[in-house]
Design brief:
The chain has 15 helices and 9 strands. The chain has 401 residues and is α/β, with parallel strands linked by helices. It binds 5-phosphoarabinonic acid.
Amino acid sequence: MTKQVQVEICYGWVDLPNKITDEEIDRIKKCSDRIKKQADVFVVIGIGGSYLGAKAVIDIFSSTFSNMQSLNDRKHPEILFAGNNLSGKYLRDLIEYIRDKDVAINVISKSGKTLEPAIAFRILKLFLEEKYGISGAAERIYVTTDKEDGILNKIAKDNEYETFVIPKDVGGRYSVLTPVGLLPMSVANIDFEEILDGATFAEYVYNEKSIEKNDCYKYAAYRNILNKKGKDIEIMASYEPSFAMFTEWFKQLFGESEGKNSKGIFPAGVSLTTDLHSMGQMIQDGKRNIFETVINISRNRSFITLPKVYDDQDGLNYLAGTEIDYINKQAFLGTVQAHVEGLVPCIIINLEEVNEYNIGQLIYFFEKACAISGYILGVNPFDQPGVEAYKNNMMKLLENK
Ligand code: PA5
């Protein structure tokens, strides 16, 4: 009975996309407008589910060189991340980099007590207070946390920081469609309402009971069938470097949801064609315990073609006039064929084109598939008891310092 209740309180993400109120959407937009006026740099503090989804979506929709563009070209503050590691170098470099810039921060922690973001927040809060004074800093600190529990919630209340709520029934790794992801997306000028619309559509489509008509259920079932046949590593592959963080989000979603009770499919990732020159050999020829899930963007048109040069010194004129995206597509087709022939089953997920609506669908697709797949595997996809082991040891060591 207790177990059942515990699982049920984690289902908030299922109908999340259409549960968000107009007031919440409005407040996210107003805050992001304020942040855009206040800051050259917006630092998002969080770890695991409290930052990966936002970073994944921002990377997909931003210029590859976004943070190197001028504010004028980028049209929103530079977005940096902190609190996702315990590296002193990282924090030192960050403080040095932002020292003379105008800064706003969004600290995100559902529990409000995770050490990595707590440390980064203390340092950045102090940085802001020294720069702008206590009240000036308070206007630049945005908190996303539980409605009533946790130290972060108390700090936010005591200092009257602008606060967004992570619903109790939505776990960290399922929270990208709450203010956890939506506020940073909005600061990056991403049309997050379109993302929510896409996810709402997916909620409807992937509610189809019949597995024959439900691609999400099919994917969850295929991965478990492959697992039963000895494939215990799933490699997500994408041919767009801007999807690298999406792969990280996927790895965290499935890794923390499924890896328990000595079970689980190990989620890995490759960025292709880059990694064909590193992991390609292993995938093609190594131990046959892997399958691949490939994100294929059907209509990818960047309209950059290979130019013709008259001396043809590099011998590439046979490709002159060909779109680079077309060449990338042939690499995808050739690689899938090679991997399948090398006994690596490939699941292809076709994304018609990269837009907010489709990314919203894709996020929901993986969240639901992950939950279903966890249940097929026989684990609770919403807890993460294993994460406590390192924390307990680290805390004991720190307390004895
Ligand atoms: O998915 C999860 O629940 C975790 O990855 C958390 O997001 C991560 O541990 C951060 O936790 P918190 O938001 O409580 O700081």
